[in-house]
Amino acid sequence: MASSSSSSRATGAESGSDASSSPAELPRQLGLWSAIAVLVGTTIGSGIFRSPAGIADKLPGPLPLLAVWATGGLFALCGALTLAELAGALPRTGGYFVYIREAWGRLPAFLYGWSELTLIRAAALGGISLTFGEYFIRGLGYDPSIAPYDSYAHYLAAGALGLMAIINVIGLRWGALVQNITTVAKYGGLLIIVLLAFAIGLPKTGGHFTPAAPPGSFSVSAFGLALVSVLWAFDGWGDLSKVAGEVSDPRRTLPRAIVLGTLSIIAIYLLANLAYLSVLSVDEIRGARLVAADVALRLVGPIGVTLVSLTVLLSTFGSVNGSLLTGPRIFFALADDGLFFRQVAAVHPKFKTPYVAILMTGSLGIAFVLLRTFEQLADIFVTASLVFYVLSIGAVFKLRQRPDWNPPVKTPLYPFVPALFCLATLFLLVNALMDPAQRWGTLGVFGVILLGIPVYFLTVGRRRSPGA
Fold this sequence. Notes:
disordered N terminus, transmembrane, membrane
């Protein structure tokens, strides 16, 4: 059961008050459009530019390929509609951490923070920034898959992480400004690719949409594994909740920003995949590690590769910025609640940012990007995240039983929408365990998560009195 201090904080949040019993207070500075930019900018990163090849390899048919992206969009929308209720009712820094703590107690909340620290956040930052480094090298005319340029991509990624950590320490407004600019640039860049593909590529090729589902292009297991890659691309729809404590007029702003931002992502992702198929066949997409650049090369020649590379650079740069803007707030909330080193909840006296949490997160991301490949980072991130998706979105079932539960909006089609989300998530976890190629990696991720249990009882759990 949640602690009494947690409950008092929740009640204050539900009333819409900005007051907090916490000594570490972050000012509310994000309006609606900046909030949408945080969500969209964090989500559109490397996935839509990097994942299609692996997805097409698992589902080598136009219809299965498009179906898995549509399914991922539905999955994200179900989560976002539920999150709108949770975030509106509990608009506090930390997002998922807050919902898990309020619904399921301190140990599950600690395990979420532990997993973010040891697996999720660093893997996300590493995967996104590595795509930044690869497209940077591709834009210079070199192949990032061969030596020594493959190593250079990792170093560039680490440098980008360090720079964005400094920007976010300097202030939320600077981080939000970078987010607004890069979000407009990346969304606009994707739209340009889509328009060029439909205007130039589609009349030339007639599209590569038939046969829609050739023999061997679909299986339930392969669909589940491909959906994991799609979820990497869609992940970010929940990140705005992690900075909920810094959103102005949160009960009104958060639900609107979460739903509008998620719908805009679903639309551009489906259009992008239609654009890719308008220019390249499924077999060509399977071999296109940097698919957007290959599409642009086919459409307008080498200058297209340069333009796409700039778009992806801005996209991944903005996504790294968004992840460093949102992720450290989890560790800030964890420390502020007494579940982590208290110093991590420190607020910079001048910049009013959780600077210790930001620098710690950036350092972990740099370590991961120097030691892991993109595929390893993406698999670690998605597998660990799925566990806590169930706990955080499933929290709505528990929290609705509270007499003081007063969200500004309620999840439509409740309980079907959150139940569908949770059941789909559990299917993905079971599917990963059943697949021989994924089983040991999945068990390894679970092992790291469960290692947090003895860590909890040997540290913060041991310090709490029985009646706390």
